[in-house]
């Protein structure tokens, strides 16, 4: 029962590793205990964005004069969401894997020795060995807060929030991170009475300081009650009690207080840029994705997976991955893009101004409202904001943030600029098309002083 490579975890990260090594001629097995395709396909990225999209489309139409009426059909939105999950059936994903010469092993995989993986499934326990590499891609799981009563209270996590078959009468969302704000807006627009409990003074506190207030304003416009500085102390069915004595009630409670790596001790596996796990002799154990704690984002995990697969292939052929090559996930350190699919959207890449200064950089910050011909055509009364953070020593971008309707499509240009270390002087000659929202790039560079 030997393979060249054994990947534990059949989500998008594991799929990318397995595809890369199998395509390179290495016999590859992929172990999955639930559904091939993982969290993103069935309980996270795809269903959550499907729940949001219909409401965004309706709101966008209503912001343009000449559109009259319109409403959401909640049942149809949920049906569309279910279509994106293939009704939680992974047979199509399994067929794809097998067509790519990836052997799918059903069960719970565990590293039980050097180059050894034990799979415990419905048919019992089987031990497999890897000639070249074992790759851990087990992802992450919801982090439960230490609240009185949490163990006795049925709550929603992100899984229930994205797979629910009916709209809850009322929903309390605990947590002002990405999952919290996205699900608060999705269910509010589908007809639920939603209350969002945020522990600090704004949602999305790790992003630039203007982001959270703009997102909170968008949520409130959809009827979400946003409770700031709301640290929870206890929970029971239908009721959340805050430390300041406030009581928040709802028919359902979504706990969205973060995620932790899916390891035995909930601690991340430390890796180098090629994915090798630190402290393991023999250079055979790799990891990628959420389990590394580097960037809990599907696209970044897939990027790491491609790097790991490439590194394994190169080492199997006697070569070492070169610095900043496809076998090293070095962009993890400089340009991690992220989109929060609320309305307004948030699109961010690189470092915040605060992070850049803390790292000792001499930075110049350019803040602007998004007010160009393209935005005014896009929506009547378009409201948005952007920030550009420039390293003055190198005259290159180290961080860019956009907030506004449909700004996600602006993000890749910022990512390319940061990864490519393009100077602001060269960016001046990247002429944005008129009339598009991208013209805000010209306004940012003008404000910078070019």
List the defining traits of the structure above.
single chain; 450 residues; alpha/beta; FAD/NAD(P)-binding domain; Enolase-like, domain 1; 3 domains; 5-stranded antiparallel β-sheet; 21 strands; 30% helix; globular; Class-I_Pyr_Nuc-Dis_Oxidored
Description:
The chain has 450 residues and is α/β, with parallel strands linked by helices. It contains 14 helices and 21 strands. It has three domains: 2-37 and 90-141 and 260-331, FAD/NAD(P)-binding domain; 150-257, FAD/NAD(P)-binding domain, CATH 3.50.50.60; 344-448, Enolase-like, domain 1 (2-Layer Sandwich). It has helices at residues 12-23, 38-42, 45-62, 74-84, 91-99, 158-163, 178-189, 211-221, 298-316, 353-358, 373-378, 411-419, 424-427, 440-448, and strands at 2-8, 28-32, 102-106, 108-113, 116-121, 124-136, 140-142, 170-174, 193-197, 225-227, 232-236, 239-242, 247-249, 252-255, 259-261, 285-287, 338-340, 345-350, 363-369, 385-391, 396-404. Strands 1, 2, 3, 4, 5, 6 and 16 form a seven-stranded mixed β-sheet that branches. A five-stranded antiparallel β-sheet has the order 17-18-21-20-19, with helices on both faces. The chain has a four-stranded parallel β-sheet with strand order 10-9-8-14. Helix 1 (12-23) packs parallel to helix 9 and helix 3 (45-62) crosses helix 7. The model has no long low-confidence stretch (mean pLDDT 97). Residues 336-442 form the Pyridine nucleotide-disulphide oxidoreductase dimerisation domain. Residues 3-304 form the FAD/NAD(P)-binding domain. Its cofactor is FAD.
């Amino acid at each position: 029962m030997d393979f060249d490579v054994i990947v534990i975890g059949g989500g998008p990260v594991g799929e990318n590793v397995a595809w890369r090594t199998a395509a390179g001629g290495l016999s590859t097995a992929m172990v999955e205990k639930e559904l091939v395709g993982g969290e993103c396909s069935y309980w996270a990225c795809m269903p959550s964005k499907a729940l949001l999209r219909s409401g965004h489309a309706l709101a966008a139409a209503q912001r343009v004069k000449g559109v009259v009426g319109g409403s959401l059909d909640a049942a149809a939105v949920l049906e569309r969401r279910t279509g994106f999950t293939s009704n939680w059936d992974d047979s199509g994903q399994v067929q794809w894997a097998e067509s790519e010469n990836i052997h799918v092993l059903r069960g719970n995989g565990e590293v039980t020795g050097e180059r050894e993986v034990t799979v415990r499934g419905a048919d019992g326990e089987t031990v497999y060995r890897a000639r070249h590499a074992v790759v851990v891609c087990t992802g992450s799981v919801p982090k439960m807060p230490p609240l009185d009563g949490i163990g006795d209270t049925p709550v929603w996590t992100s899984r229930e929030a994205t797979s629910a078959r009916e709209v809850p009468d009322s929903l309390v969302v605990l947590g002002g991170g990405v999952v919290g704000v996205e699900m608060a807006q999705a269910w509010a627009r589908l007809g639920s009475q939603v209350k969002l409990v945020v522990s600090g003074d704004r949602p999305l506190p790790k992003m630039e300081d203007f982001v959270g207030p703009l997102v909170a304003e968008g949520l409130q416009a959809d009827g979400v009650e946003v409770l700031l500085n709301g640290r929870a102390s206890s929970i029971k069915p239908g009721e959340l009690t805050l430390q300041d004595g406030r009581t928040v009630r709802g028919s359902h409670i979504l706990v969205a207080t973060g995620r932790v790596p899916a390891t035995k001790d909930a601690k991340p596996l430390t890796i180098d840029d090629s994915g090798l796990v630190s402290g393991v002799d023999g250079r055979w154990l790799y990891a990628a994705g959420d389990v590394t704690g580097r960037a809990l984002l599907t696209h970044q995990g897939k990027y790491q997976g491609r790097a790991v697969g490439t590194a394994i292939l190169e080492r199997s052929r006697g070569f070492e991955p070169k610095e900043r090559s496809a076998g090293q996930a070095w962009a993890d350190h400089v340009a991690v893009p992220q989109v929060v699919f609320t309305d307004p959207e948030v699109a961010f890449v690189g470092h915040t101004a605060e992070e850049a200064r803390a790292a000792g950089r001499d930075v110049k910050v350019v803040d602007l409202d998004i007010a160009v011909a393209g935005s005014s055509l896009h929506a009547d009364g378009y409201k948005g904001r952007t920030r550009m953070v420039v390293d003055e020593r190198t005259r290159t971008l180290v961080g860019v943030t956009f907030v506004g309707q449909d700004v996600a499509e602006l993000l890749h240009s910022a990512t390319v600029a940061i990864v490519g270390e393009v100077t602001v002087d060269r960016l001046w000659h990247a002429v944005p098309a008129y009339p598009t929202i991208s013209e805000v790039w010209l306004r940012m560079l003008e404000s910078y002083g070019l």
